[in-house]
Design brief:
Length: about 280
């Protein structure tokens, strides 16, 4: 196995990774490519933000790249990002001032292809932003924010909840939230109706796009979610947050102040109560 991984690296990736080092050193403009998932795109931002201090950064996002696994109720239905999701996601990326340009990929020349993290002969079960650290050779302090938006104009100081059908923790439930007010759900209607079975007082806010979603999270009292698109937003903006940790694919870890994760029910309720009291 070790010999095989070395062979794959030497034949497929060594020259490319060494070439990235040269491009960062020699080029004033750096182009990036990523094909999703949406949360993975957000976790690429720390590297882009750091390089933007010395480079003009162009971020291209590819739509309709096929998934090789079948996710239950995945919103893009067989691809990482479809055209609809990309259209809704681009406003959030365009709002990041450190990105000079963010567009749909149409065959532009690319300096750093972030997609290769899925092909490299390594185990990727470590914190997601570090996938891109190891491709680019750039490392930053993940305690610092790496995404920002303006606060939402109307929705403020709510406990914001997002729970997708994938990456759920089988050891916990959300029923205790029925004892609390001020909850608002962001996500799909199917996700909302599924959670409302346990949390009868839950309300939904239908975000017009992912920039709108990020603004709701930015303005929240605190955020609760599993490792899908909304939690990476909360992590990137460093709002108070609780992560429903996924036991089988632990590639997301909270970093920074007022950031917690849980595997088991008593700890979920403990950290919820802590943040609820702290920000009351």
């Amino acid at each position: 196995m070790v010999e095989k991984s070395i062979k794959i690296f030497e034949e497929k990736f060594k020259d490319y990774l060494y070439g990235i080092e040269r491009k960062i050193k020699d080029n004033k403009k750096i182009t990036f490519l990523h094909s999703g998932h949406l949360g993975d795109l957000i976790y690429a931002l720390p590297v882009i933000k750091e390089l933007s201090k010395s480079h003009e950064c162009h971020f291209y996002i590819q739509a309709n790249k096929k998934l090789n696994v079948n996710y239950f109720k995945h919103p893009a239905k067989g691809v990482f990002i479809d055209e609809r999701m990309l259209k809704l996601f681009l406003p959030l990326m365009k709002a990041q001032k450190f990105i000079h340009k963010c567009e749909k990929y149409n065959g532009e020349e690319i300096d750093i292809n972030f997609d290769i993290f899925r092909e490299l002969p390594v185990n990727i079960h470590f914190n997601s932003p570090r996938w891109y650290f190891h491709i680019s050779g750039v490392q930053v302090d993940l305690k610092d924010p790496y995404m920002d938006v303006e606060p939402h104009e109307k929705i403020k100081n709510r406990i914001v909840v997002h729970r997708t059908f994938r990456h759920r923790n089988q050891f916990i439930n959300y029923k205790f939230l029925s004892d609390y007010k001020n909850l608002i759900f962001i996500g799909t209607n199917d996700e909302y109706l599924d959670l409302k079975k346990d949390v009868k007082n839950l309300e939904i806010y239908e975000c017009k796009d992912y920039l709108d979603m990020a603004r709701v999270i930015k303005s929240s009292k605190f955020f609760i979610g599993n490792q899908s698109v909304a939690y990476p937003m909360a992590e990137a903006m460093k709002v108070p947050r609780i992560l429903e940790a996924e036991p089988n694919f632990p590639v997301v870890q909270p970093i920074g102040q007022d950031a917690f994760d849980f595997y088991y029910q008593p700890h979920f309720e403990k950290w919820f109560n802590y943040l609820d009291k702290k920000f009351s």
